[in-house]
Design a protein that fits this description.
Elements: E1 2-5, H1 12-20, E2 32-36, H2 52-64, E3 76-82, H3 92-106, E4 119-125, E5 128-134, H4 148-163, H5 181-189, H6 196-208, H7 214-223, E6 227-232, E7 238-244, E8 258-259, H8 260-263, H9 269-276, H10 294-314, H11 317-336, H12 340-353, H13 369-381, H14 388-414, H15 418-451, H16 455-468, H17 470-478, H18 482-494, H19 499-508, H20 518-529
Antiparallel strand pairs: 1-3, 2-4, 3-5, 4-5, 6-7, 7-8
Helix pairs in contact: 1-2, 3-4, 6-7, 6-11, 10-11, 10-13, 10-14, 11-12, 11-13, 11-14, 12-15, 14-15, 14-20, 15-18, 16-17, 16-18, 16-19, 18-20, 19-20
């Protein structure tokens, strides 16, 4: 159950007309009163003799009793309470009881307070009610509404338990401000998929991804087509910024600007600068430029993501918070540079994971340098075409990011960050879908190569698998991905690696029991660790000192620079 406290208004009659009217899309059906401060309150929805003006005068009576100079300009309080789509349809009596609980919890009308604010609850749909109140008590004083939004949320959690409704994860005050109903209606009228606030938040986050200075960040905003305003201190130093969509205008045809801090708590200029320079927000530092194409950028990102998984599993809280925030930058950068067939799911993954990047654990920036560099590499590597090596490395990096996001979900769950954990799990599902779209072609090619291997070679690779990971071998051998794994083991051997040693190392780095496909996870880990082509390009045979038939090729000097170090 979701409570939403809307912007305060100055006209009670206008809100009453909306609540009892047909709605913007004729969606309001049978509008009627379910509860009010007084049982005799007129109901224009069910009583043909009652009028909107009668209800307005009754609610506004304490306001109008004050001298004109003492009347609050914004005296109309508006709360909507909405049930989840899967919840049962509640009766009018149920909604009346919920309305009374909400006005008591928020301070509008505490239990037993006969001088409380006047209010009315209107139902015009099965799944929600609207509560309208005037912010002057019958004794002429103002109500105490400190933290009423948080108290409304807490009461909704209790309502869910009492009525056996869907349990919504509790928040902690670190979420971005949701779009207002007016912003949502405006987006619908203009045919936008998302509100201007949401679109701007996404664009600003993408501009932050891998940026190393304030100038670069602001330049990216302008390159993305946003209107940008900056505010300077008397010293000339920048204090903040605002952004607007060129085609988002108010009634006066002027652009509607949003400050970064109103888009999300971590998008204020001071917070963004902390990412640039570790723990010294007053100084910008540069990360090295790495010139690479999409495929190499994705390989480096896979390595950095694996290092981050180990830190999230074993690191200090402040370090973990920084890595999770940087993981959001990587997802933003990957979505921005992805091919068409993975772009939508990756964009959704980045969009929902945004909620998981903030909590009350303060991030200790600087430790996340490798992940932020990976985001920068993706941006500078440019868009992937989605085929060949960059298509295969996209599958590789999505596979690794799935583990990273899942690790973030587990960490948040342990810390009782309910909304963040739920957001990370939703992002993981989008990554799962994106992975299937990216992996089908390269895994299909590897599958064909694996089927074409000689029977003795496949048997040798199977024996190698049983030797290295006996507890997972039989599962892997029955999966469709086994042939791709067999081809990968053959490539590793041809490149001079010890397949059994690589398998042991790849399987031991993190548990595999929760993987959808053990064989596919091992394919991408092995191809990254052994620096094999991510697509199906066969490796040229190298001379080795292996005993024929034993599969233990020894490479004199194996370069492990691309492999992640274990967290200390």
């Amino acid at each position: 159950m979701i409570p939403s406290i809307h912007n305060r208004g100055s006209e009670t009659i206008g809100l009453i007309r909306y609540l009892y009217g047909p709605g913007t899309k004729e969606e309001h059906t049978d509008p009627h009163l379910v509860a009010a401060f007084d049982p005799l309150t007129p109901d224009p929805g069910r009583d043909p003799k009652a009028t909107y003006e009668q209800l307005q005068r009754l609610l506004d009576q304490p306001v109008n009793a004050l001298p004109t100079a003492k009347r609050p300009e914004k005296h109309v309080w508006h709360l909507s309470v909405r049930a989840a789509p899967e919840d049962p349809v509640l009766s009018d009596e149920d909604w009346a009881a919920i309305a009374r609980r909400m006005v008591a919890a928020t301070g509008i009308a505490p239990d037993g307070d006969e001088q409380a604010c006047r209010w009315a609850a209107v139902r015009h749909a099965d799944d929600h009610i609207h509560i309208i109140a005037t912010l002057v008590r019958d004794d002429g004083r103002r109500p105490r509404l400190h933290n009423e939004a948080r108290r409304a949320q807490a009461e909704c959690r209790r309502v869910e338990a009492d009525y056996d409704l869907r349990r919504v994860p509790a928040g902690d005050g670190t979420a971005a401000k949701p779009p207002t109903s007016a912003e949502r209606h405006k987006a619908e009228r203009e045919g936008r998929d998302r509100t201007a606030r949401e679109e701007l938040r996404e664009t600003v986050r993408r501009a932050v991804a891998g940026a190393t200075s304030t100038d670069e960040f602001l330049g990216r905003l302008k390159d993305a087509g946003l209107l940008v305003r900056t505010k300077a201190l008397p010293s000339g130093d920048l204090q903040g910024y605002k952004v607007a969509l060129p085609d988002d205008r108010n009634r006066d045809k002027e652009p509607v600007y949003y400050a970064g801090s109103t888009l999300a708590p971590d998008l204020s200029l001071p917070c963004i600068r902390k990412r640039f320079s570790g723990n010294t927000p007053d100084q910008d530092t540069d990360m090295p430029e790495v010139s690479s194409g999409p495929a190499m950028a994705r390989r480096r990102t896979a390595t950095a993501a694996w290092q981050a998984v180990l830190v999230i599993d074993h690191g200090e809280d402040a370090q973990v918070a920084a890595y999770i925030a940087a993981a959001g930058e990587v997802l933003d950068a990957l979505a921005k540079t992805s091919a068409a067939h993975t772009r939508a799911e990756l964009r959704e993954a980045a969009f929902v994971f945004e909620r998981a990047t903030r909590s009350h654990v303060q991030a200790e920036h600087g430790h996340d340098r490798a992940l932020r560099q990976a985001a920068r590499d993706l941006i500078h590597g440019g868009p992937a075409l989605g085929r060949g090596e960059d298509g295969a490395t996209t599958a590789m990096v999505i596979d690794m990011l799935f583990f990273l996001v899942t690790a973030a979900a587990h960490w948040h769950a342990k810390k009782h960050h309910a909304q963040q954990a739920a957001a990370a799990l939703r992002a993981a599902e989008h990554l799962r879908t994106a992975y299937r779209a990216a992996a089908d072609i390269p895994l299909g090619a590897l599958h064909l190569r694996g089927r074409r291997l000689s029977q003795p070679l496949r048997q040798r690779q199977a024996a190698c698998l049983r030797q290295a990971v006996p507890e997972l071998a039989e599962q892997a051998l029955t999966e469709p991905g086994w042939f791709a794994l067999a081809a990968t083991l053959a490539d590793a051997e041809a490149a001079g690696h010890d397949p059994a040693g690589l398998l042991t190392e790849a399987a031991g780095r993190r548990e595999l029991t929760t993987a959808d496909s053990v064989s596919e996870v091992l394919v991408w880990r092995l191809r990254r660790m052994a620096d094999l082509p991510a697509d199906a390009t066969p490796m040229p045979q190298r001379a080795t000192t292996a005993t024929p038939g034993q599969g233990h090729a020894v490479r004199p000097s194996v370069n492990r620079s691309d492999q992640p170090r274990r967290a200390r």
